[in-house]
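Aim 2 progress. For Glycosyltransferase family 4 protein, the working sequence is reproduced below.
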Amino acid sequence: MKVAIVHYWWLSNRGGEAVCSALVELFPEADLFIHVCNEKMVRQSLPANFRGQIHTTFISRLPGARKHYQKYLPLMPLALEQLDLSEYDLILSSESGPAKGVITRPDALHICYCHSPMRYVWDMYHEYQAGAGRIVRMLFPWIAHRLRAWDRLSADRVDHFVANSKFVASRIKKFYHREAEVIYPPVNTSDFSPDAQRGDFYLCLGQLVAYKRADLAVEAFNRLGLPLIVIGEGELFDSLQAKAQPNVRLMGRQPFPVIKDLLQRCRGLVFPGMEDFGIVPVEAMAAGAPVIAYGKGGALETVIHGKTGILFKEQSVEALMQAVQQLENGEYKFAPALLHEHAATFDKSVFKQRIKSFIFRQEYFQTTTRDSQNSRLKDLSLV
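Predicted structure tokens for this construct:
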């Protein structure tokens, strides 16, 4: 059986790439298709048993594709449809940017793991439009209109959807009119220990872009006067740095050992944005740190109010300050070992077991004419 894994772009290692890497662990002979990637980074990120090929679309050959890949978004549907997947029996697409729109054989099985319907053409379209430059604001409404139509049509090419959270499943239902199985993404919870001595500082970790709302954290801690470390890079770094008081330290992008150390020692993680799932809060809990999160989106599925963190209901500086003060004054107390135990329910091993089970439940693998397929899967150590 030939397996293809289709991903949008791979230029950094985030949640979508962690999913792809876990899928390759299940299908080490699968071929990987990506619009544009840093192949050295990809190969270093994939498991050692990867024996497939890495293919890129024509997007990767366009000028400045690695740095300006998002500018080529209007061409990505065409690029996907140029991929010849006729020899593949199982196609696993990883969707957040355009990935699911590939054309497959009528008898092939296409499962889409959806991290999110494309935010910039659906529910966050107006936010992206408002923050864009003058030329983009002029052109993008026409581009987004066509992308929306293609995105909705390409959803019909998928046999089964898997969503990374109930929140995303509801958006798949809204925009694509399709049901989706919920399988939470893989988190390497065993990388973290809850036993380190906790410090007095709080941590805010993530890309410094508008929807992550790191601005709320900086302003709240400016007023509180408590120590806050902000890890991440992005378009808002300079403006946040200018606003930060001496108690707020912006460290930019940091390697994993530094992030791990800070997660294991911080008093709590501040998570003021609304995410589709949110891997960082799970990593924080695995490290024994409670999470102070905006109570909407994926945080409602990972953080248990009063047991593993504090959820604040309004995305405002005042609401965040109140939640921090509740932790500071001892209104809520958290046991690091219990936080780690809760985080383990989102471990990569759980993801692999659930995604494997979902694949095998499909009719494609249940018919007697597919005995040879099941035999091949056994060879791949999947059964």
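The first strand starts at residue 3 and ends at 10. This observation will guide construct design in the next reporting period.
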